[in-house]
Write a structure and sequence with these properties.
Helix content is about 20%, strand content about 30%. With about 200 residues, it is of the alpha+beta class. The chain folds into two domains: about 55 residues; about 140 residues, Umud Fragment, subunit A (Ribbon). The strands form two sheets. The chain has a seven-stranded antiparallel sheet, with no helix packed on it. Strands 2-1-4-3 form a four-stranded antiparallel sheet, with no helix packed on it. A hairpin with a 2-residue loop joins strand 3 and strand 4. The chain is elongated and about 80 Å long. The two termini are about 50 Å apart.
């Protein structure tokens, strides 16, 4: 209160009274305080906007769930790209601020029509890293990265034995996009897809 009193020229006793619920007796003091508070609110909003604009749009997400994500400060790689940092593979993901989605490690873009109509070409999916990629819920959507460092979005099912996965497209034409069999030793990482963000 003393700082606000100095900056606005309003007696601190008056400010204390207003804080307790007393109505302003001098309307000019009231408007001076309102102008000061509006100015401070705009300043805070501008600072938050400036901070947000300085944050990189993408993150380096290590495939190892024990390592922390880091901002991609140079911005040279698109989301979905695999890069190596200190010999550790990292997936570049878009940053997202959407609390209603729950915990999301990042967002990648779906390319191709193999997952249409569920995830059309150009839509984005929110992904999270799994602590144990061998514990999957069959029939759900996952983002799988193979040993060639290529990523693919598919529904995942148990293969013919415990060492294989069946990756199934959502496209109605299964002849055009047939199921893919992958051995576990051909897979580098598995991310769970928790949300689809569709383009309009």
């Amino acid at each position: 209160m003393p700082a606000i009193a100095i900056l606005t020229g309003i007696a601190k006793e008056t400010l204390y009274k207003w804080e307790k619920g007393t109505k302003p007796s001098d309307i000019n003091d009231y408007f001076r305080l309102k102008a000061y508070l509006d100015k401070m609110e705009n300043k805070i909003a501008e600072e938050q906007l400036e901070q947000a604009s300085q944050k990189p749009a993408t993150l380096r997400l290590p495939l190892n769930p024990n390592l922390l994500p880091a901002p991609q400060t140079d911005g040279k790689a698109a989301s979905g790209t695999i890069l190596f940092h200190d010999n550790e593979p990292e997936l570049i993901v878009d940053r997202i601020n959407a609390p209603f989605l729950g915990p999301v490690d990042g967002v990648i873009e779906v390319t191709g029509e193999s997952m249409a109509p569920t995830f059309a070409n150009g839509c984005r999916v929110g992904i999270i890293r799994l602590n144990n990629s061998r514990i999957l819920n069959w029939g759900l959507h996952y983002y799988i990265i193979d040993k060639n460092w290529q990523g693919i979005v598919r529904r995942v099912y148990q293969g013919n034995n415990n060492s294989t996965l069946l990756l199934v497209s959502d496209h109605p034409n299964q002849e055009l996009f047939p199921p893919i069999h992958r051995e576990w030793d051909q897979i580098e990482a598995v991310f769970k897809i928790i949300a689809g963000i569709l383009r309009y």
